[in-house]
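Retry 2 of 3 after timeout on previous attempt. Resubmitting structure tokens to design endpoint.
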């Protein structure tokens, strides 16, 4: 595997080199957190695709293909649908707001300190999302170096933390573009066709597998619905996704580039499921479906090419991991630490926060053993706790600050409670969480006074890009009467 090692070494060196370039570009808070809000079509579309297609979409997507066949594509398809809806309906408004976090948007819309509550929920989501991609490093490095899972997690996670700390969103943007190109070539143009041909094409696979492997509904209608609830809605409101939207130079770039990214996600989802299906034909007795991707790459591809495909997998993991990490750091500094009065030295504080959270994520990843379950925890908490409050902020003027607070608490508590009662992999937590959040939001909002007109006026002005943009979102008390 000498050739593979050389390819991987070049890839890692390139990522660290780009991180160093990002260090020179990240001079201000805006540079570090949202790449100066200067990305054009290609950079925006590539980085958006890179951040949403990570470990769960690549290693997890192939795992689902190995288990369910083409129906395993639904997880990534629902992610693509979420990206399409976000950019077709909401992206223009989000760019005009010129905020840094979801919590800042809620403060602006509801007044008061909504970000203090939403920040805790978003912090948990972004941290667990970082963990899912960091966890998936284990399967790749196990194939490369035959090392324990914890060592693979430590190696991959440390690389991501290093370049993320150095240049923030600029480093992540530049590395994401390289990663986007590598995984497009490695997954779509190398591994997919070789896997299909080796498995005998569609005809050969159909002869060796049960017919259910070629039915798009075989994973189960309830599971497909749950994927839509968790991932499509989750993509509409996640800090890691919004933070990429904020990097667009104009609303038009955000909309067009995002739609291109959404279509790419749909193609990627089908490709991953087909690779997994081919792996089932070629290696039907794997001890764990989680190893399907690494196994088919290690056994099927020649040296050098194998290194490229494994680099593609690392690209997918690193792009999502770094995007989630910077989102977690941004939520921590902008929505949580600011509330306790920490100000000044923002670039340095964000770097230190990114470093600390990266180390925490690596530690948690060493204790979790299933990438899809870890992702489910993250999205259940996000959607159950925040979806109703965020969509209500954008679409329902009658929603109030008290309704937002109560909805976030009720939804999050319900999700956690039913994870404990029914298990992490159960569908019930998201249903109960969304139901409780919606009922409480509507009931409390209708039972409390309307949001003051002064707050709604500032909100409307910002949505239309006609208000002066302050550095810090004002509190309810600071807004004009």
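Retry 2 succeeded. Sequence:
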């Amino acid at each position: 595997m000498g050739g593979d090692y050389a390819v991987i070494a070049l890839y890692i060196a390139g990522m660290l080199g780009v991180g160093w370039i990002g260090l020179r570009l990240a001079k201000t808070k805006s540079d570090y957190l949202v790449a100066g809000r200067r990305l054009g079509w290609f950079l925006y579309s590539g980085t958006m695709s890179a951040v949403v297609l990570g470990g769960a979409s690549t290693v997890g997507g192939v795992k689902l293909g190995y288990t369910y066949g083409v129906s395993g594509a639904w997880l990534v398809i629902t992610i693509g649908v979420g990206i399409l809806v976000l950019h077709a309906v909401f992206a223009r408004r989000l760019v005009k707001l010129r905020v840094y976090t979801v919590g800042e948007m809620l403060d602006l819309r509801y007044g008061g300190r909504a970000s203090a509550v939403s920040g805790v929920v978003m912090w948990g989501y972004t941290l667990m999302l970082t963990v899912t991609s960091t966890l998936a490093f284990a399967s790749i490095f196990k194939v490369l170096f035959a090392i324990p899972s914890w060592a693979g997690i430590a190696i991959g996670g440390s690389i991501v933390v290093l370049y993320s700390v150095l240049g923030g969103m600029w480093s992540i943007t530049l590395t994401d573009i390289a990663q986007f190109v590598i995984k497009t070539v490695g997954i779509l143009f190398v591994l997919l066709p070789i896997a299909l041909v080796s498995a005998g094409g569609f005809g050969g696979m159909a002869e060796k597998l049960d017919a259910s492997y070629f039915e798009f509904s075989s994973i189960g209608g309830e599971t497909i619905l749950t994927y839509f609830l968790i991932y499509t809605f989750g993509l509409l409101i996640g800090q890691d996704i919004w933070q990429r939207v904020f990097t667009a130079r104009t609303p038009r770039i955000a909309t067009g580039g995002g739609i291109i990214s959404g279509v790419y996600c749909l193609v990627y989802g089908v490709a991953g499921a087909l690779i997994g299906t081919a792996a089932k034909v070629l290696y039907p007795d794997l001890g764990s479906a989680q190893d399907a991707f690494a196994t088919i790459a290690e056994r099927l591809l020649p040296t050098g090419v194998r290194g490229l495909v494994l680099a593609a997998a690392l690209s997918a993991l690193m792009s999502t991991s770094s995007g989630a990490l910077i989102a977690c750091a941004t939520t921590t500094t902008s929505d949580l630490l600011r509330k306790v009065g920490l100000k000044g030295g923002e670039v340095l504080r964000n770097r230190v926060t990114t470093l600390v959270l990266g180390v925490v994520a690596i530690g948690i990843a060493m204790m979790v053993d299933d990438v899809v379950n870890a992702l489910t925890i993250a999205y259940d908490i996000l959607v159950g706790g925040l979806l109703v409050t965020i969509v209500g902020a954008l679409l329902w003027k009658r929603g109030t600050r008290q309704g937002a607070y109560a909805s976030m608490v009720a939804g999050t508590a319900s999700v956690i409670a039913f994870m404990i009662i029914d298990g992490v992999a159960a569908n019930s937590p998201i249903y109960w969480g969304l139901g409780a959040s919606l009922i409480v939001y509507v009931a409390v909002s209708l039972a409390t006074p309307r949001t003051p007109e002064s707050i709604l006026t500032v909100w409307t002005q910002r949505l239309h890009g006609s208000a002066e943009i302050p550095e810090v979102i004002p509190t309810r008390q600071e807004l004009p009467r």
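Attempt log closed. Confidence is low (pLDDT under 50) at residues 471-481.
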